[in-house]
């Protein structure tokens, strides 16, 4: 690698001029010369090696170059929109975006599974136990991931994690448990439409927290993509109203709306914390600590607020199967979401799972006999377009305001540093056993 500041080698400076008779005299179309495509379109490799075309000299036999005022040929002008579309398609149709879409929709299907099983328990068997269902999920996380932490040794062991960060995970577990409880509890006070609309409040809160805590920096296209996704959610809510899924007004709309806003904000806090832990510590640590403290908090809250509802459940194999399906879907969601967040970001995940309500609707067409509307398909397309736009341009992370100074001289500046200190380097004298004196100097 050349030293910093060295002059670049001149291209083809070693090539000897070729005889004129060896240069291919192939006629070149006029628009090649006017569009600047001549060096890459000449069919003769030897002619490209002569260095004549780079200076603007046409090969023998080629027509004269077009004047600056000549119009561009129709073929070149028609190709511009096609080239633009090709560039846009190449940017959007990438393996990263396709992988992000697939991973996001897998999470949406997990959420759909939890929603369908919960609604089936409520409508068919009059079972409304959201805290008990969350307790089962946290218990599974405790059984799997906290046990894995218990068998670790060193700084990543369960005991070391508890000694260093126990109070942080208490707040994280509390935020996660209460977010789940508040969103489900809000359905008893307000309408489905309000929950769907106000639940999107978590996305701008999540972006703000990512800006200040994770130092994420967004571009204009990210804000436009979020606006497109929210437009898709509005379309979905409009379809619900037209299809008659608005339901009743609820007992107290204000309390329900406040619960949704608080739950969405707590979800944002939980997701930002999850992204930080997964990308800086480990996925197993996050799931193990959430399982440990989530089980404790949800167990205490379950004993206080839902012990009567659990006693009234008429247990049979169908109810047990629905509880099992809910627990597996929720466990899969919690286990798989850190993997997706590590690949993308918490904001990208929250945009991708906006389609979960649409999947729940599609299942509800057969299970609960919902009315279908073409606006559901339109809302799905709008949300996916916004999601792809968001993923097409990666966010960047802001650097710290004060960068640390390098502790050693870089390789590119080593020789320059040596030259500057040549005159200041003192002579070194070494005494050997035989009494010989050897003077070592940079000279």
What fraction, in percent, of the residue positions are helical? 55-70%
Low-confidence stretches: 1-57, 65-70, 402-430
Largest sheet: 2 strands, antiparallel
For the secondary structure, the number of strands is 4
The string of secondary-structure elements, in order, is HHHHHHHHHEHHHHHHHHEHEE
Protein described:
It is a single chain. Helix 6 runs antiparallel to helix 12 (about 285-305) and helix 9 packs antiparallel against helix 15 (about 345-350). By secondary structure, this protein is an all-alpha fold. About 65% of the residues lie in helices and about 5% in strands.
Short description:
By secondary structure, this protein is mainly α. It contains 18 helices and four strands.
Provide keyphrases for this structure:
single chain; 443 residues; mainly alpha; two-stranded antiparallel sheet; two-stranded antiparallel ribbon; 4 strands; globular; disordered N terminus
How do the strands and helices of this protein lay out in sequence?
Layout: H1 30-35, H2 38-41, H3 45-48, H4 74-92, H5 95-125, H6 130-150, H7 158-186, H8 192-198, H9 202-212, E1 216-217, H10 220-243, H11 253-280, H12 283-305, H13 307-311, H14 317-343, H15 346-352, H16 356-367, H17 374-392, E2 396-397, H18 414-420, E3 428-431, E4 437-440
Antiparallel strand pairs: 1-2, 3-4
Helix pairs in contact: 5-14, 5-15, 5-16, 5-17, 6-7, 6-12, 6-14, 7-11, 7-12, 9-11, 9-15, 10-17, 11-12, 11-14
